[in-house]
Amino acid sequence: MTTSATPETSPSPHLPRRLALPDFPWDSLSPYRERAAQHPDGVVDLAVGTPVDPTPEIARNALFSAANAPGYPTAVGAPVVRAAIAEWMERRRGVAGLGDGEVIPTIGSKESVALLPLHLGVRPGDLVLHPRAAYPTYDVGARLVGATPVPVDTDADPVTWGIAEDAPVAVVWLNSPGNPDGHVLSVEQMARIVAWARARGAVVISDECYAELGWESPWDTQPIPSLLDPRVGGEAGRSGLLALYSLSKQSNLAGYRAAFLAGDARLVGAVTEVRKHTGMLMPTPVQAALVAALGDEAHMEVQKEVYRERREVLVEATAAAGLVNDPASVAGLYLWLRGPKSMSAYELVGAFAELGIVVAPGDFYGEAGAGRVRMSLTDTDERVAAAAARLRSSEAAALFAG
Ligand SMILES: Cc1ncc(COP(=O)(O)O)c(C=O)c1O
Fold first, then answer.
1. Of ligand 1's atoms, which has the minimum distance to the CA of residue 49?
2. How far apart are CA 57 and CA 29, in angstroms?
3. Where is this region: Disordered (predicted)?
4. Number of neighbours of residue 142 by Cβ within 10 angstroms
5. pLDDT at 2
6. To test the ligand 1 pocket, which listed residue (48, 246, 374) has its Cβ within 8 A of the most ligand atoms?
7. N or C: which terminus of the chain carries fewer CB neighbours within 10 A?
8. Distant-in-sequence contacts of 194-201, Cβ < 8 A, 24+ apart
């Protein structure tokens, strides 16, 4: 078997050049996974937020029906796709009147998070602001274009961020509900950030892939607001604003790579140009699955109940073990836990591994994650029940007592 060329053996003295990327964090979990796998009742994997429940029939059938697809799809997607996105944004997110040039399907949303700075022309020297405890790809996307990622407390008033008036802020990323912390931004919080960004000529992009998963008051009954909500953008409407959404979690379509972005037509147009040039096209069968899934609420409701029950079980069991969930973690797919004593994130990960449970250290999500772990709701009901039983044991109480 051949191995990939190292710089020593490469025919080019220059390539591959190392990009300014951080180490892929998940690799550091291997020893904890191995420890957890030794549990006599098997491992419970609550580290990666990858869905485990079946892809809904309606999406599978649509994919299958569109399997005969000899021609290229278009970058903007079929008209029926754009119409389905606009209709869903109005029905579920309160964003009416999105026109054809204001939406585009994407191949999952992670590629948008990583590549939007490139697509929008963010340059070296520009600042890309993102939440303090955040999905690592906002940072990666900034680094790929040589820009400077800056973590800021997006829950707080932007005047507290300490960013100079004349700083070259290009993008402000929001993520509501947040991964990993489950925080939700209100209309007022987002409106304040939008006004601040507009005054600096910066674009605001909101990653909203957990928007359907609200658990605690008021988000158990009220829809979680979108950045594109007319109350956020005010008179300037959607100017300078983009929102991302993904069907990976709400519809168990992570394997299909089905997502979209919506907002300011000038920004969507710029993104579309690059996607055309680079062949970033959502496959035709996936477009069909996206349309089917967006048009059906029944499967979403069923899936939401599954997550609600798993969350309740895990909230109760982690509390019984003395762990404390962030009180502002009110939505999304994760618990954001700290220990009863001051344990580091990796000490907590180690204690969970003794119980055969894998969780992610808060450090993966930036310095604000120190002393915390992220626990996802994505293992089967049977595995979640096994984790809960272990967390209620005296062994767990002793492990987390430090
Ligand atoms: C905050 C956030 N954004 C984006 C993504 C990417 O999701 P996908 O590429 O499956 O749409 C994830 C996945 O976990 C996420 O947590």
1. 14
2. 34
3. 1-20
4. 25
5. 42
6. 246
7. N
8. 194/227, 194/232, 194/233, 194/234, 194/240, 194/241, 195/234, 196/158, 196/159, 196/172, 197/158, 197/169, 197/172, 197/240, 198/236, 198/239, 198/240, 200/165, 200/167, 200/169
From ligand 1's centre to the CA of 209, what distance in Å? Answer: 7
Work out the mean pLDDT of the chain and round it to a whole number.
95
Mean pLDDT of 229-237: 97
Which two three-digit tokens encode residue 202? Answer: 């910066």
Ligand 1, atom nearest to 134 Cα: 1
Cα-to-centroid distance, 260 and ligand 1 (Å): 12
* Residue nearest atom 6 in ligand 1 by C-alpha distance: 110
Closest ligand 1 atom, CA of 249? Answer: 10
The answer to whether 206 and 199 have CB atoms below 8 angstroms apart is: no
Nearest to 282 by CA among 52, 80, 102, 53: 80
Atom of ligand 1 nearest to the CA of 247: 11
Quote the ligand 1 centre to 50 CA distance (angstroms). Answer: 10
Q: How far apart are CA 313 and CA 310, in angstroms?
A: 5
Give the residue from 3, 19, 44 showing the smallest Cα distance to 383: 44
